[in-house]
């Protein structure tokens, strides 16, 4: 009897482990020129999409909650409508870690007996993000350039915030 319980516990543990794993969407591999998994994860982490998908309003009785950030779709499907979404943050985190940053895919699926979660690229095979958004994710802290000219020419505008790096010659003939 002891061996049977031990074997049953091992099988149950294995099943629970499998239920907590994300399965990558192999129909959406990232292509040459697509942002890296780390860049996609960074863009998604800054979007609040995951939090919004996991925390629908209390009056929301939909079985499917969908949130989109550019072309990336978060989808949470509840089996029991009257219950909150179980393991939602963990599920989306697992998909990002195992399929997007840990694999070469745009997303995947995570399922349990209470809910199913997916992340996918609705624009596939195109990138889910416009090129400027993906490029901005590459620039962690753009340099800020200050120029102090006294007196400032009358046709100059004062800009507060990040300023694009200038190019070309300086008024005194030097170069940037």
Keywords:
176 residues, alpha+beta, disordered N terminus
Rg, alpha carbons: 24 Å
Helix content: 25-40%
Helix count? 5
What's the main sheet like?
5 strands, antiparallel
Q: Which strand order do you get reading across the main beta sheet?
A: 1-4-5-3-2
- The oligomerization state is single chain
Number of β-strand runs = 5
Mass-distribution shape: globular
What's the SSE pattern? HEHHEEHEEH
Low-confidence stretches: 1-19, 137-150
Strand content: 5-15%
How does this structure look, described?
The protein is of the alpha+beta class and 176 residues long. The protein contains five helices and five strands. It has a five-stranded antiparallel beta sheet with strand order 1-4-5-3-2. A hairpin with a 2-residue loop joins strand 2 and strand 3.
Which secondary structure elements does this structure contain, and how are they paired or packed?
Elements lengths: L1 H18 L3 E2 L12 H9 L3 H6 L9 E6 L2 E7 L9 H14 L6 E4 L3 E7 L9 H8 L38
Antiparallel strand pairs: 1-4, 2-3, 3-5, 4-5
Helix pairs in contact: 2-4, 2-5
């Amino acid at each position: 009897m002891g061996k049977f319980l031990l074997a049953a516990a091992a099988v149950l543990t294995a099943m629970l482990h499998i239920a907590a794993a994300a399965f990558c969407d192999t129909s959406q591999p990232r292509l040459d020129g697509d942002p890296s998994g780390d860049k996609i994860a960074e863009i998604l982490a800054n979007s609040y999409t995951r939090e919004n998908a996991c925390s629908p309003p209390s009056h929301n009785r939909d079985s499917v909650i969908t949130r989109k950030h550019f072309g990336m779709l978060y989808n949470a499907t509840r089996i029991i409508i009257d219950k909150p979404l179980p393991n939602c943050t963990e599920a989306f985190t697992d998909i990002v870690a195992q399929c997007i940053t840990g694999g070469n895919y745009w997303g995947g699926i995570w399922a349990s007996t209470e809910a199913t979660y997916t992340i996918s690229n609705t624009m596939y095979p195109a990138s889910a993000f416009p090129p400027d958004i993906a490029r901005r994710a590459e620039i962690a802290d753009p340099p800020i350039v200050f120029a102090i000219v006294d007196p400032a020419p009358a046709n100059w505008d004062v800009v507060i915030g990040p300023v694009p790096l200038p190019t070309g010659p300086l008024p005194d003939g030097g170069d940037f």
